[in-house]
Structures are given as structure tokens and as C-alpha cells.
Amino acid sequence: MTEESKGSKALLWLVACGFFMQTLDGTIVNTALPAIAKNLDASPLRMQSVVVAYLLTMAMIIPASGWIADKFGIRQVFIGALSLFALGSLFCALSQNLTQLVLSRILQGVGGALLLPVGRLALLRSIPQDQFLQAISFVAVPGLIGPLVGPVLGGWLVETASWHWIFLINLPVGVAGIIASSIYMKGNPLPNSSAFDLKGYLLLAFGMVTFSLALDAGSSLGLQKAGVILLTIFGLASIAAYWIHAARSSKPLFSPRIFSIPTLSIGLLGNLFSRLGSSSMPFLVPLFLQVNMGYSPFKAGLMLLPMAIAGIGIKRFAPLLIYKLGYRKVLVTNTLLIGLSMSSFFWLNSSEIWWIFSFQLFCFGAFNSFQFTAMNTLTLKDLNGEFTSSGNTMLSMVQMLAMGMGVACAAGALDAFRDLFGQDTESMLWAFRSTFACMGVITLSSSFIFWQIKNEDGRSAVLKDSVLD
């Protein structure tokens, strides 16, 4: 094996490990939230900010990741991302209250947001074109494994050690990654890197953050209706101002012309509303199992395994069905199945037989994973030329934004139903039931968007294996 091939293989493993760290930390926290809340003297039903802060930070940083890599160099940025991720993890473990933990998760999210896009860019510039698809497929595997082991590992660490270790395990991996990056990764700053649309970025970032905070303001920040309305208006105004700016700018962050591609427009909006509902499940299910059914963190993590296993198993069948039926039939039907599978949790009770609950999670996991593959390939399949990079970046941003907003919506709905029904055990059961149904209905709403797909869309599409979800 030549030195060049050894370096390429090491680079693949390095980027794959970075992606694994990112996806693992997106799920490992969920089963530990009640234990963290108890240790920090906070309510387990108001811990969503720990998840939302991480996802929202990633959504905010991703649009700038390409420019940052060009300006400062892929190698330097990847090492910096690993350092920030490891440092944020250390601060998370040292946190003494909820505020400190949220701030530490923001720092961790900055590093996490750069790991995948910058790593993917390193592969694009280092791996020969005829090997790129295979390389990206290899890097995608950890994205499937992370959510599979995250909840179980988080629950096990909480029971055998303490919740602090769900963050401390990142430190040795981060240090090893920094050393490996300094040896195997290349990529100096580009001498003529393009100008960055700072004004547009600030408008878009402020709008995303403010609008997302409005969804979480009532339950997490304790703001009254006036504060929520104020945040909502400022968020929408900032996003509107961005699109006015983009229409007049010669080199905007995201050009409005990108929405002239119908499949991209439908795919992005469908991603937003579909994930808005379905992304709440990894947050709600462990919380329900521990708060209402008295499960231990490890057992709650194990109960999520059917959902992850079904998600991996369905992947190979998705392209076949899309080719056979087309995107319109597949996405409209599957969206209805996801919404119904989520709403079926309305009939849960505290004495539920475990295998029935597992079957519900298995069905949801299969439908949801199938949805991700169909939505993402629809979004990217018609991209070419000048819109390829920005379209892919926008999809990643929308995914993270929707996931964070989904958790915030679920927490807000749970808080509202708790106020409506009460806080005793039976009332909390009704609050969780109603929240599951509510989030299922939100998911169902995206079927109206997918209904706009033309019947012929996807019949001759080349499904891109480079889609990471």
C-alpha cells in the first residue's frame, strides 16, 4: 500500500469518526435528561434547551462552514472544530447548573457544525473523483450507527457511572482526532477565497435563532405571550429582510433563484415540516418512559433500539420503491403513515406491554428513515452547476433547524397540556398522549406539500448516495 493510499484511508476514518461524534452527541443526551435534571435541580420536563441549543447552533454555523474552510484552511478548521467540540464536552461535564450546560452545548455545537461539512470538503479535494461516491458512502455509515448506540450508551453511562461521562467520553476521541488531523489532513487557506455575505448571514442567523427561541420561550425561558409574539415578529422580519437582501446582492449566501428548482423547493419545505413533528420522538419517548413508566435510563435507551434498527434496515428498499412508484405517491403515503404511527402513541398507558410499545417504535423508525431518504434525494436530485453547493448546504441547515424546532415544539406542547390536565401521574399520561398526537398531526401537515410533486418526478432520477441524514 502506497503512502498516498494510506493517507486517504486514514482521512476516511478521521472524517467518519468526526461524523460519528457529531451524530452520537445528537442522541446520547436524550436518555440522560431526567438524571441531569435531578443532579442540576431542574425539572426533567424543561430540559429541552440542552438539545435545542446544540441543534440550533449547528443550523446557524453550517451556512458559513464552506467559507470558513476556504478562508482559514480545511486542516486548521477541522482541528479547530475538534478542539471546540472536545472543549465544549469538557465544559458540559463540569456544568453546575442548567445555564452553564446550555452555554457549553452551544460551544460544542459550534465544533459539531463544522465536523461534517468541512470533513466532506476535505474528501472532495483529496479523494479521486472516481472514488468519491464510495468514500462518502463509507463516511455515511457512522451517521447510522451513532443514533443506534447513542440512547443505549447514554443510559448505560448514567447508571454505571454518572451523566458527566456522556460528555467526557468525547475527550480522548477528540484528542486522538486532533493528532491524526495534524498528520493526515491537508488543506491550506485558498488565496482567492470568495467574499462572504456577512450581512445576509447575520440576518438569516438572527431570524432562525429568534424564531426558534419563540417556539421554546414559553416552556424554557418562561416568557409570557407578549415576549413570544415579540420574538416571533423579530424572527420573521429578519428572515424577510434576508430574502430582500439576497434578491439585490450579487453574491448572496443563498440566492432566491435556487427556489426556481421545483423539487428543491418542495423538498426543503417538506423536510422542514415533516422533521418538525418526527424529530420530537427521540426527545419525547425516553422522557415518557422514565417520567411516566418508571424505566431506568438504560432500559429506556434499549427501548429505542427497534426504532434505530428499523431505520437502518429499510434503507436498501427505499430506492426500489421510489423508482417503482415515484416520489409523489411514496412521500404522500409515507407521510400519512408516519403521522398515524406517531398518533398511535395516544393510546399508551402506564402498564403498556413492552413488546407492543417496541412494535410501535419499530414501525415509526422504518417509516421515518424511509421518509428521510425520499425527502433528501428529492431535494438534491435536480441540483447542478452553481446551485449544487448552496442547495446541499441549505438542506443541512434546514434539517438541523427543523430538529431543534421540533424538540422546542414538543416541549411547548407538553408544557401546555400539563397545565391543562394537571401534574399528577394520570394527568401527565394524558399530557404525553396529547403531545404525541399533536406532533403526529404536525407531521401529517407536510403531506400537503408533497402533494405538489408531479407524478413524473423521480421516475428517472439518479438517487445520490452522498445524501447524509
UniProtKB/TrEMBL annotation:
<dbReference type="InterPro" id="IPR011701">
    <property type="entry name" value="MFS"/>
</dbReference>
<protein>
    <submittedName>
        <fullName>MFS transporter</fullName>
    </submittedName>
</protein>
<feature type="transmembrane region" description="Helical">
    <location>
        <begin position="298"/>
        <end position="318"/>
    </location>
</feature>
<keyword id="KW-1133">Transmembrane helix</keyword>
<feature type="transmembrane region" description="Helical">
    <location>
        <begin position="395"/>
        <end position="417"/>
    </location>
</feature>
<feature type="transmembrane region" description="Helical">
    <location>
        <begin position="50"/>
        <end position="69"/>
    </location>
</feature>
<feature type="transmembrane region" description="Helical">
    <location>
        <begin position="354"/>
        <end position="374"/>
    </location>
</feature>
<keyword id="KW-0813">Transport</keyword>
<feature type="transmembrane region" description="Helical">
    <location>
        <begin position="102"/>
        <end position="123"/>
    </location>
</feature>
<feature type="domain" description="Major facilitator superfamily (MFS) profile">
    <location>
        <begin position="11"/>
        <end position="458"/>
    </location>
</feature>
<feature type="transmembrane region" description="Helical">
    <location>
        <begin position="227"/>
        <end position="246"/>
    </location>
</feature>
<feature type="transmembrane region" description="Helical">
    <location>
        <begin position="196"/>
        <end position="215"/>
    </location>
</feature>
<feature type="transmembrane region" description="Helical">
    <location>
        <begin position="163"/>
        <end position="184"/>
    </location>
</feature>
<feature type="transmembrane region" description="Helical">
    <location>
        <begin position="330"/>
        <end position="348"/>
    </location>
</feature>
<dbReference type="GO" id="GO:0005886">
    <property type="term" value="C:plasma membrane"/>
</dbReference>
<keyword id="KW-1003">Cell membrane</keyword>
<feature type="transmembrane region" description="Helical">
    <location>
        <begin position="76"/>
        <end position="96"/>
    </location>
</feature>
<keyword id="KW-0812">Transmembrane</keyword>
<dbReference type="Pfam" id="PF07690">
    <property type="entry name" value="MFS_1"/>
</dbReference>
<keyword id="KW-0472">Membrane</keyword>
<dbReference type="GO" id="GO:0022857">
    <property type="term" value="F:transmembrane transporter activity"/>
</dbReference>
<feature type="transmembrane region" description="Helical">
    <location>
        <begin position="135"/>
        <end position="157"/>
    </location>
</feature>
<dbReference type="InterPro" id="IPR020846">
    <property type="entry name" value="MFS_dom"/>
</dbReference>
<feature type="transmembrane region" description="Helical">
    <location>
        <begin position="429"/>
        <end position="451"/>
    </location>
</feature>
<dbReference type="InterPro" id="IPR036259">
    <property type="entry name" value="MFS_trans_sf"/>
</dbReference>
<dbReference type="InterPro" id="IPR004638">
    <property type="entry name" value="EmrB-like"/>
</dbReference>
